[in-house]
Each structure stands twice: as structure tokens, then as C-alpha cells.
């Protein structure tokens, strides 16, 4: 089985490449490195001891994409490539709609042209907007989304389903990720944001190695047991493994679009995460409580039972393991992939 992995040099893509190669899949990666570096893929090869083709190209460059599909015989595509910063999407909506929607459309056109029918897509819990109830099930109402990034995910889900209904795609498996954190246990792969992190865990890990001084906790006046927001954090390796199950599913079903939550089903507050990280690292994380961040929902966690029932997938790693692996990655690579550390 041969899989094209778009955005495979990124945080989740690189971890998924390892799981795919270890499971015996052949892969090729296409990435424009707009938010990643070739170093992550070099390390994927080091970890797995396997070679694979890597194409530096923008997915919107259809001539390049056409060549990639012509040079390979793919059975399926996992589509990670996209811009993912919520705040940046509010400041640069044209770029976000252009990149995320444009990439998906050219991918669909080339898959149709080359007869590649199986599609696994990285969606997000953000499509649920402000959830009416938790845990969130896949049949919960969608939107309204609070930012252009979230809207691109909702639009792409629709585009893929419409394309599949037209017969151009055979099976579409949509994975709605909750909050991926952690890193590969080797310490060679992890999350490496380009600028000051927007997300909680990379911010905490950078505080732990002295790159940043103090964490801001965005509000402790939510209607939650200890005040801050609650999220469903999932180990990136568990998430990567869900893609293998999704591919197996895409191989067995036909003419369907299916949606699965990928989370642990457990919610942790920001304070609980700080404590878990301090325990895992033995480091104190200085923080101050500031105002709420606009657009944050108070409580979000998944009902992951559908994935367990249908895909046979379940998260294995707990919050302590997530924090330990994140800390190991940051201490082994204090500047991420940017230097040899
Ligand atoms: P990432 O930024 O690390 O990886 C995305 C990769 O796509 C990068 O390597 C980037 O260079 C590449 N890319 C972007 N636009 C491209 C284009 N036009 N052509 C070719 N390559 C392009 O992000 P990630 O955290 O690994 O996320 C992967 C996917 O999962 C994204 O679609 C993201 O929206 C989705 N997702 C992420 C999270 C999260 O918290 N990390 C949560 C839910 C969903
Ligand atoms: N937080 C802080 N301080 C920080 C960063 C975050 O207190 O410096 C808090 C937030 O207020 C929130 C929690 O930590 O309560 C988690 O925030 P993240 O930014 O790490 O994650 P979000 O839940 O806001 O967003 C993530 C992804 C989105 C995705 C969304 C829903 O970044 O791409 O999950 O799945 F859409």
C-alpha cells in the first residue's frame, strides 16, 4: 500500500510517517516547508531506517502535484498540509482560505485525474464551535466557527463529502483531532513552532528550558472546577496511530464519508496540565493569570467511543506520559529543528 502524505514534515505528519513506515506502508511526502523543515523527515528516516521520496512543493502548484502522482502509484492520501494558527487566520484570512481551500481543491483534482480514491483528512474539534454539551459526539451540531481557520476545516469537510458524492473520491475518513501534545519517545521528533507558541504545551516546554520566562494562564474565572478552560489532550503518537486505523477503514468501505473524534475523552484544566508537567519534568513553571483569550471555549472534550467501536482505535498514553515526552523533546532540542542541538 502506498500513501501520499501531504504536510508530512509537520508536527503530526512526521509522527504519522513513522507509524506508517513501521506498519509497512510505502509513503511519499509533499511539503512546502512553510511551517516545518526537512530535518524532521531526515529524522523520520533515522528512526525507521527506511527511505521514501520527499517532494518540496506547494500543493497549489498543480503541475508539480501532477508529476508527483505520475511518478508514483498511490492507493490513498492523508492530507495534513495546511496553515493552523487561529490568531494568524483572523489577521490573514485571505492567505488561510487561499492556502487551505486551494490546496485541498488541487489535491482533489489530481486525485480524480489519477484515480486515487481514498482520502484521510485532518479536521479539528474547532468545527463544533461552542459545544452545547460535553463530551462531544460526532453528530453534535457544527459551527458557528469562531475564526477563519476553523471555517476552512468546516468548508473542507463539505468539499470532500461533495467530491466523494460525485464519485471522484471513493471513501473519505475525516478525523477531528482534539488537542495533540507530546512527542516521539526517541526525543527526535516533536512540536517546533516558528515563533512564540500560541498553544499551551509548547509554551510550557519553552518556559521549562528557559526560552520563555512565564506562562500566561488565559483566565481562571470560567465555570469549571478550578477556574481555567478544560481541554482533551491527546498524545501525538496515539493520534498518529489513529491514521493507520483510518486508512484500514478507507480500504474496506466504499462510497462513504465517515467522521471520527480523536481524543482521550478526558478533560484537563490548564492548572492540571501545569501540575502534570511540573511532576513529569521536576521543573517549576512560573505563571500569571491574565484575562480570557477571545474565542476560547470553556470546556471541550470528546466522546471517542465511535473510533473505538468502528476503527478499533483507542488512546493509550496518559497525561503524565504526554508531558514526559514533550519535556524530553524540548530538552534534547532546545531550539527545535533549527540547529543541531
Ligand atoms: P504543522 O504546521 O506542523 O504541519 C502542517 C504542514 O503542512 C507543515 O509542514 C507545512 O509546511 C505544510 N504546508 C502548509 N501549507 C502547505 C501547502 N500549501 N503545500 C504544501 N505543504 C504545506 O501542523 P500540524 O500540527 O502537524 O497539523 C497538521 C494538520 O492537522 C493541519 O491540517 C492542522 O490544521 C490539523 N490540526 C492540528 C491541530 C493541532 O493542534 N496541531 C489540531 C487540529 C487539527
Ligand atoms: N492557554 C493558556 N496560555 C497559553 C496558551 C493556551 O492559558 O499561553 C490555554 C487556553 O486558554 C486553552 C488551553 O490553554 O484553555 C489550550 O489552548 P491551546 O491554544 O493549546 O489549544 P486550543 O484548544 O485553543 O486550540 C487547539 C488548536 C486548534 C484547534 C483547537 C480545537 O490549536 O488548532 O485546539 O481542536 F482548532
In short:
With 341 residues, the protein is of the alpha/beta class. 40% of the residues lie in helices and 17% in strands. The chain contains eleven helices and 13 strands.
Tell me what the structure shows.
- By secondary structure, the chain is of the alpha/beta class.
- Helices cover 40% and strands 17% of the residues.
- The protein contains eleven helices and 13 strands.
- The strands form four sheets. Strands 3-2-1-4-5-6-11 form a seven-stranded parallel sheet, sandwiched between helices. It has a two-stranded parallel ribbon with strand order 7-10.
- Helix 1 (11-22) links the parallel strand 1 and strand 2.
- Helix 5 packs parallel to helix 6 (148-165), helix 7 packs parallel to helix 9 (270-281) and helix 7 crosses helix 11 (319-332).
- It is globular, with a radius of gyration of 19 Å.
- The protein starts with a strand and ends in a 9-residue tail after the last helix.
- The model has no long low-confidence stretch (mean pLDDT 97).
Amino acid at each position: 500500500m502506498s500513501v501520499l502524505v501531504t504536510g508530512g514534515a509537520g508536527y503530526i505528519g512526521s509522527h504519522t510517517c513513522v507509524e506508517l513506515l513501521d506498519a509497512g506502508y510505502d509513503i511519499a511526502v509533499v511539503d512546502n516547508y512553510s511551517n516545518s523543515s526537512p530535518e524532521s523527515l531526515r529524522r523520520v528516516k533515522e528512526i525507521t531506517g527506511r527511505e521514501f521520496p520527499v517532494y518540496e512543493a506547494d500543493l497549489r502548484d498543480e503541475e508539480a502535484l501532477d508529476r508527483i502522482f505520475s511518478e508514483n502509484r498511490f492507493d490513498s492520501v492523508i492530507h495534513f498540509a495546511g496553515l493552523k494558527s487561529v490568531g494568524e487566520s483572523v489577521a490573514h484570512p485571505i492567505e488561510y482560505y487561499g492556502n487551505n481551500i486551494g490546496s485541498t481543491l488541487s489535491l482533489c483534482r489530481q486525485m480524480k485525474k489519477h484515480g486515487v480514491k481514498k482520502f484521510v483528512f485532518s479536521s479539528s474539534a474547532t468545527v463544533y464551535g461552542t459545544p452545547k454539551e460535553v463530551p462531544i459526539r460526532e453528530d453534535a451540531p457544527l459551527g458557528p466557527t469562531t475564526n477563519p481557520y476553523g471555517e476552512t476545516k468546516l468548508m473542507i469537510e463539505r468539499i470532500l463529502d461533495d467530491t466523494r458524492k460525485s464519485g471522484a473520491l471513493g471513501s473519505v475518513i475525516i478525523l477531528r483531532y482534539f488537542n495533540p501534545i507530546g512527542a516521539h519517545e526517541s526525543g527526535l521528533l516533536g512540536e517546533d513552532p516558528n515563533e512564540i507558541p500560541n498553544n499551551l504545551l509548547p509554551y510550557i516546554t519553552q518556559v521549562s528550558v528557559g526560552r520563555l520566562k512565564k506562562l500566561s494562564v488565559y483566565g481562571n474565572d470560567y465555570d469549571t472546577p478550578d477556574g481555567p478552560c478544560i481541554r482533551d489532550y491527546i498524545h501525538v503518537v496515539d493520534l498518529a496511530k489513529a491514521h493507520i486505523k483510518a486508512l484500514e477503514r478507507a480500504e474496506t468501505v466504499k462510497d462513504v464519508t465517515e467522521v471520527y473524534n480523536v481524543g482521550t475523552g478526558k478533560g484537563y484544566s490548564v492548572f492540571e496540565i501545569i501540575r502534570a508537567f511540573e511532576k513529569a519534568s521536576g521543573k517549576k513553571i512560573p505563571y500569571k493569570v491574565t484575562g480570557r483569550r477571545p474565542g476560547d471555549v470553556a470546556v471541550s472534550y470528546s466522546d471517542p467511543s465511535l473510533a473505538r467501536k468502528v476503527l478499533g482505535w483507542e488512546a493509550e498514553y496518559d497525561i503524565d506520559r504526554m508531558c514526559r515526552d514533550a519535556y524530553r523533546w524540548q530538552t534534547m532540542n532546545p531550539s527545535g529543528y533549527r540547529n543541531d542541538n
